[in-house]
Amino acid sequence: MGPIPLCVLLPVMVLTAVVAVTAEENTIDDQYTWPQWKVPLVRKRHTVPLSSPSFAAHPQPELSGTCGIECQRHIPSPSLNDLEQFLSYETVYENGTRTYTSVSVHGLNEVTVWPRNTSSRSRHKREVYGTDTRFTIADKQYSTKYPFSTSVKISTGCSGVLVSPKHVLTAAHCIHDGKDYLDGVQKLRVGILKEKSRRGKGGRGKGGKERGKRRKGDKVKEEGLEMEENGGRGERKGRGKGKKIRSRRSVDSGKPSFKWTRVKKTQIPKGWFKGVSDGLTADYDYAVLELKRAPKVNHMDLGVIPSVKKLPAGRIHFSGFDDDRPGNLVYRFCSVSEESNDLLYQYCDAKPGSSGSGVYIRLKEPGKKKWKRKIIGVFSGHQWVDVNGDGMQQDYNVAVRITPLKYAQICYWVHGDSSECQVA
Hints:
glycoprotein, alpha+beta, serine-type endopeptidase activity, Thrombin, subunit H
């Protein structure tokens, strides 16, 4: 066979190079795209009535006894029967009645393999250390707009996030201490940020002309905050020289107030209760509240991500109502330092009151160029963790991650129909 003519070889070389470049671009693009998960089905078996709770528990400033990454290595993997027990749940209604619902799990073997625990070596104080990197979102221009408007305040002193028009995701310990429901849960309310009325004060109501134009300084702060909230990437174009990347100061132009809504019912997984899941209790520190009335604000969808550390930025975001900044929404972002199957260990500065906040990231929708934020976890708070299983306690800021199983359960609580929850 003779030499291949250049007129034939050249197009082949060009085609090979184009395919290689396209494959590389697709690989990079996949890193910024929400993965599609086939999730198991969580179905109700039967529901039985229980006696009314005492509502006598008191909030704990810090959780302790959490079994950490290395500690959990010594615990056998839960069986299907164990998981069905952990995912069975209690429901408390606004009239004080309570029920217990057992569930069955189907299609667990069809779910893509979830990553194994990764080892953790560094230990640092993770509440607020060094320079405080939190943003106070005191300006109503930001706090009452998406994504910050999805953050809500729970009347027991925690935070939460809207995951549907009428459902709030929060931490289980904000509702229940593992033995009993907290004092105040029988009259549980959720506070939605709203703008104060501007009637009679130059606002849009009667008796005054609109004065709602933004000042130049506000625009700079908004752009800097949006840049950080997007992880340094996004659709913003044309950032000029001299503009600030971020600002921790906010303009207090019309501090927002809360519109409170009663909670219709509360649902908590049985895995959170003492003596049920043993060292895995922290993995089930989440609850869903159904509101009596849907607030007129957007919600944020749930998402499932196999590894946060392997994302290009490895960064998470969440907003809550920290106790040391009363009445203000506080936003922060940070990188995840370690992660297990069910928990995220991170360095985000946080104070009590932020527990229950929705932890989210921002990726592209499959097949589209549009970016979308989704909740991938619930901030549990500052915890003392048994790292090695030897009883020695180390402190962390911990978030409970949304796994395919938890996605299936929460989705079922929200929709009441597991057939709507087959793909995350």
